[in-house]
Amino acid sequence: MKVLVTGVKGQLGHDVMNELAKRGYEGIGVDIDEMDITDGDSVQKVIGEAAPDAVIHCAAWTAVDLAEDEDKIGKVRLVNATGTENIAKVCHELDCKMLYLSTDYVFDGQGTRPWEPDDERHPLNVYGQTKYEGELAVEEWVEKFFIVRIAWVFGVNGKNFIRTMLNLGKTHDRITVVNDQIGSPTYTYDLSRLLVDMIETEKYGRYHATNEGLCSWYEFACEIFRQASELDPVYGKVTVIPVSSDEYPAKAKRPSNSRMSKEKLTENGFALLPTWQDALHRYLGEIEI
Q: pLDDT by residue (tens digit) across 175-216?
């Protein structure tokens, strides 16, 4: 199987390429230097010449707060919506599978019930809106599609919440973290295995994929420092203080509810990901802290 992966310089694209290689598949990795997804001709040429059996589309604008700036909204839409549509059209022409990485931000983030894959979508910020528009493009153009919504992602190849906490922990004794946003941290190493499992099948549709278990960002931070202190005692001196989202203003509205139902994975024979605590433990063993 030949698979083209966009966004290979990011956390997830990097791990997807490694997983494809482990299984003996031909992975073709592209980033903006190789293929500008906002340029329809570029997308047509690169994917057309590669003629893959599947495209795993990881590339996206993910700077959530910056996306709210008036002068950035057009660019965000160009990347997340138009760029995705460009890829979807070529996948339609080639009749190949397309797996699109989306986000829980396509929902309104309210309540406490876990979001189901087919729930109505009501995005609460620009990033969520443009990812939703990307979903619509995939659904319109591609027959063999997987839409996989993820949340709270961390990986070896890039910036993420864990690295931010560890860096702060080296210079601060006290750190404040919001405790009223609930979700599931997700390790790109685990996620990449699931994504490749998916494209080996024809079990198309919308899915949610995160590591198992729930926590607040505050609880996540506490566990990061607890586990990190076992590797370096300096992190044991950090006190994490819970605060409300109101005390931590941000440009983009954040979901208070990022709980995601993963029953559809089980129903279709896909293995659930390990617990987020286990994923964190393995991740800390992979990076230098």
A: 999 999 999 999 999 999 999 999 999 999 999 999 999 999
Which of 94, 8, 100 lies closest to 45 in space, CA to CA? 94
Distance CA 178, CA 219 (A): 9
* Catalytic site includes residue 127: yes
How far apart CA 166 and CA 228 sit, in angstroms, is 8
Helix (H) or strand (E) holding 137: helix 126-141
Which positions of the chain have pLDDT values less than 50? Answer: none
Q: Of these residues, 105, 127, 189, 235, which one is catalytic?
A: 127
Residues written for the chain: 289
**Cβ(4)–Cβ(50) below 8 Å:** yes
According to the model, what pLDDT value does residue 248 have?
83
DSSP of 186-224, one letter per residue?
EEHHHHHHHHHHHHTS---EEEE---BS-EEHHHHHHHH
Compute CA distances 102 → 14, 33, 40, 76, 86, whole Å. Answer: 17, 23, 21, 14, 16
